Amino acid sequence: MRRLGVLVVLALVASACGGGTTNDRSPSATRAPASNVSSPASPTAASSSPVSPLASPVELPPGTPDGLIEDVAAGDLDPARLIPRRADVEEAWVIEKPEAVVVAYVAPGDDPFRADRGTLVWRRFDEAPEWRAAAWFPTSADAGVLGVDGIVADVTGDGLEDVLLGAFTGGSGSCATWSVIDVDAADEVFTRALCDGRIDPSAGPAGLSIEQAVYRVGDPHCCPSAFKTTVLTYDGDGTWTVASKDVRDAP
After folding, report:
1. Beta bridge partners of 70
2. Residue 224: inside a domain
């Protein structure tokens, strides 16, 4: 498991907040025109992975190129070139298997608590344009996301790397919406809003480990009686199975 984003520590024993907010998918997306494909750059010795062309056009935020004619490794790409014009890179994760770059961006505005955000998946191909946008997952300003953090790990159990994202909405319960991007499938296969808890990759078995505070009758929000850990494993097609549950008393 490789951590490439900025670590964010949740307060599991904080006061409760309102329910988490799920991402609002914007209906106004447009596909970037082919004229946005970048001009050729000098190729490097890095070899591209044998990936077939995308089967269909991908909806992208306006001002985003749909391809880059650059035969370079994922780590040599500038993430700022992979997002909409006038947006800022929030975090970027280099994926080794399959070779890809996942970029979270934020559109600057007057209100930092209401900003349009999104995550783009870029994949490498054998033929030009060697880098192409494979998926876009927008987040509306109405979702109230304050920041995004991510962990690169195989959580779907297919031997390929995924990205587990936490979109933090704040509040006294450290609320966030957690999602999993299956990079190989270029698809979001898990999403859950959670307060007073957090989600991490699980190594044995490969999956997700969800930790939540357990409040019994009379517990103040500062002091839960116990913590519950639930491990989920991926079945495919967006479905997950509970592999184990454990409840332990708080110290």
Report:
1. none
2. yes
- Rounded Cα distance between 130 and 81, Å, is 14
- 169 lies in some domain: yes
Phi, then psi, of 80 in degrees rounded to 5: -65, -20
Residue 33 lies in a domain: no
The answer as to whether 3 is a domain residue is no
CA distances for 133 relative to 111, 122, 162, angstroms: 29, 4, 16
Q: Is the pTM of this model over 0.85?
A: no
Write down the H helix ranges in the chain: none
Tens-digit pLDDT profile for residues 66-79: 999 999 999 999 99
At 217-241, the pLDDT tens digits run 988 888 888 999 999 999 999 999 9
**CA 144, chain centre distance (Å):** 16
DSSP labels, 202-235? ETTTTEEEEEEEE--TT--TTS-SEEEEEEEEEE
Measured between alpha carbons, how far is residue 183 from residues 51, 160, 162, 197, 212 in Å?
A: 13, 8, 5, 25, 27
- The number of folded domains in the chain is 1
- Residue 70: how many other CB atoms lie within 10 Å: 22
